[in-house]
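Researcher: Checking consistency across runs. Here is PTS EIIA type-2 domain-containing protein again:
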Amino acid sequence: MSSTALNDFAMPHAEIAYVNEPVISIYVNPQGIDWNGTVVHSVFFFALNEQVKPELNSLYETFNEIVSNQQALTTLRASSSFEELVKILKEAV
């Protein structure tokens, strides 16, 4: 199985068959954590199912905008509240 770590973040995902309600969770650790041999500071966990299938392209495009923005990822690492995290994500897209 390949690692879900890319540069400074990881994006693991759940199997569609096991997801009752779609959700994306975000974990931020300013010190970084070891993710299968790679240090990451942000983890974006995707638990998606058929309900969101019509929105998948848009969702992944938005996610790509966020993780392609190194300044946003660096700022995200320093966020100290949920509100600040949401603001950073909105500004990144």
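Researcher: Does this match what you'd expect to see?
Model: One thing to look at in this run: The beta strands are 5-6, 9-10, 23-35, 38-47.
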